[in-house]
Amino acid sequence: MTIPIWNLETLFPGGSSSRDFAAFAEQAEAGCAALLQELRDGGESVPDERRLAEWTGKLQETLARLREADSFVSCLTAQSLSDRRAVGWTERIQTLAARYKQASDLFDAKLAQVPDASWRQWTAARPELAAVRFPLDEKRDFAKEKLPPALEAVAGELAVDGYHGWGEHYNTIVGRIAIPWEEDGKTAALSAGQAANKLDDPDPAVRDAMAGKWEEAWSAQADLGADALNRIAGFRLKLYGLRGWNDPLKEPLAINRMSRRTLEAMWTAVERSVEPLKRYLGLKARLLGKDKPSWHDVDAPIASAQSHIPYDEAASLIADAFSQFSPRLAELAKTAFADRWIEAEDRPGKRPGGFCTSFPLGRQSRIFMTYSGTPGNVSTLAHELGHAYHARLVQELPPLAQEYAMNVAETASTFAEAIVSDALLRRAGSDEEKLALLDERLQRAVAFCMNIRARFLFETRFYARRAAGMLEAGELSELMVEAQKEAYGDALGSWHPHFWASKLHFYLTDVPFYNFPYTFGYLFSTGLAAVAEREGAAFAERYDDLLRDTAVMTVEELASRHLGVRLDEPGFWNDAVARAIADVDAFAALCRA
User: Which residues form the Peptidase M3A/M3B catalytic domain (predicted)?
Assistant: First the structure.
């Protein structure tokens, strides 16, 4: 099996010039416009039961079409940063999203007009409403905290070329990155995605050389990045102020259906991981011949020559590991490999990073990454397949019941990573192999408990400062290093000042604060792994049930119903952190062997 290029032709043939996609987008736009007009013509009167049910159906149909179109355009822009037609589609789909938001805001306002007694009666009597009762209740309650629908509509319109436009500017910035690299006597200009793979190369000389070039390349784009992040944060803070919100975390917490108490309980537990993980980083540094690891050493392999894992071998390893937990999960992976859902080719011109996006109408997913054969690439592939499995489980539900938040989405993906890691560790044949696998697992603990915490600290402090005015690129870099030093306990020998410029997640506007949900997902999945270990094969069915419920209850309710635990108290999180860092002792023992 060669490293694949995904097949988008089965979705909409013709790429960014697809006539089928153009027709689909026109239908989606027309349907959204018609719904928007209906809602506007509805006046101020309280909707009756029949009209409410009709609007609910049409809103969900529009949502499904929007998600389908947005996923396709995301694939187009990721696979080729030079596809200007795809960039044009991005703007058009963002406009459709703004129209949908206008319709949704009007719909929500009409929900809020319904008296409580009538609302309870209607949602209980109509199956099409009862199936999405929770998200409808959410929309009804949140409408009372927003601006009037007409003003929310204006904000949404302006956001397309303002807020979201600045977010999309990241693609322009990253497209300018071309890092000169000499290899085998030839010099090539590496894209950001190709260059990023060099940062965890087994050869320390390669890592050190690329780290300098990487920092230099992003420094050259720092002013553009600072402009974008300042405008994104400025728009968000102004809109929040108009709504009367004084906490920039209000919206991300609501989107993730979690309370501040749960967030604080999680971060308090995470702080307990710093000293054990510092110990691990110190041991790793000595294996690498250093006093302290550099920023770019954290994800480096500890072996002198990193094993290369061919793509077909990785596919087989993942499918086999999944099958030991759930035949259904393994079957999903086999389908993804056989039907070319995965874009993994290592070539210039691609966006860096990885993602999985689902097509709710096509009942498929697509996975994007750049595969170069590292163990980290195998983990990324398993991670994204976890997302695809989650998407498959909810695809039979109504569209509103498919809209799970990022924190629980990351649960499925990190759980899939853990399955693969556990299977590999069980069959490891030598101490050297076990040490390498433990290192990879602890790298994930560092990523979610230290790296993500650094991002959260940076972003919360950036928003606090941004309220008083724009920050220059140098100030952003100072904030970034300060946050990294705190999160890592000053355990590293060098830092990444321009991480804020290089990381896509800071530019994303669909989901603000694209950081703490990762840590939630990692630790929540760690807790799930403990349950799975105790219950064995019987847990697979419960796991599926939990994932199906991720869009129809809060995370606190989800954990209580399916696991019998409380998330707004420290006990669960402390246990999860203890399990996450349990590998440190085993790593230390093998280092001494």
Answer: 333-530
Q: What is this structure's pTM? A: 0.85
Q: pLDDT tens-digit profile of 186-242?
A: 899 998 888 998 998 888 999 999 999 999 999 999 999 999 999 999 999 999 999
Q: Are strands 364-368 and 355-359 parallel, antiparallel or unpaired?
A: antiparallel
**CA 564, 570, 571, 573 torsion: positive or negative?**
positive
Cβ contacts of 177-186, under 8 Å, gap ≥ 24? 177/217, 177/218, 177/221, 179/210, 179/213, 179/214, 179/217, 180/213, 181/210, 181/213
Token pair, residue 113, equals: 């007009």
CA torsion 74→75→80→84, rounded to 10°?
A: -50
Q: Which helix (H) or strand (E) holds 135?
A: helix 133-143
Give ∠ CA 177-167-21 in degrees, rounded to 5.
95
pLDDT single digits (tens) 361-406: 999 999 999 998 877 788 899 999 999 999 999 999 999 999 999 8
Question: Does an H or E element contain 110, and which?
Answer: helix 84-113
Question: For residue 391, how many C-alpha atoms fall within 13 Å in the half-sphere facing its CB?
Answer: 28
CA–CA separation, 549 and 560 (whole Å): 12
- What is the C-alpha to C-alpha distance for residues 474 and 489, in angstroms, rounded to an integer? 22
Contact criterion met (CB below 8 Å) for 547 and 238: no
Return the structure tokens found at 354.
């990885």
Q: What contacts 248, CB < 8 A, 6 or more positions away?
A: 236, 237, 240, 460, 463, 512, 513
Q: Distance between CA atoms of 473 and 220, rounded to whole angstroms?
A: 11
- Report the sign of the C-alpha dihedral through residues 282, 286, 291, 293, in that order: negative
Q: Which CATH superfamily is domain 15-161 in?
A: Oligopeptidase f, N-terminal domain (1.20.140.70)
DSSP result, 454-474: HHHHHHHHHHHHHTTS---HH
Compute the Cα dihedral for 579, 580, 584, 587 and give only its sign.
positive
List Cα–Cα distances, 475 to 230, 480, 481, 579, in angstroms: 12, 9, 10, 37
How many CA atoms does the CB half-sphere of 551 hold within 13 Å? Answer: 23
Q: Which residues pair with 181 in a beta bridge?
A: 188
- Cβ atoms of 79 and 350 within 8 Å: the answer is yes
| 187: β partners | 182
Domain boundaries, the chain: 15-161
Classified as helix, coil or strand, 539 is: helix
Q: Which residues of 343-369 are buried (b: 16+ CB within 10 A; e: fewer)?
A: bbbbeeebbbbbbbbbbbbeebbbbbb
Own/partner pairs, 80-83, CB within 8 angstroms, 24+ separation: 80/349, 80/350, 81/171, 81/174, 81/175, 81/191, 81/349, 81/350, 81/351, 82/175, 82/349, 83/15, 83/16
- Within 10 angstroms of residue 486's Cβ, the number of other Cβ atoms is 15
CA 393 to CA 396: how far, in whole Å?
7
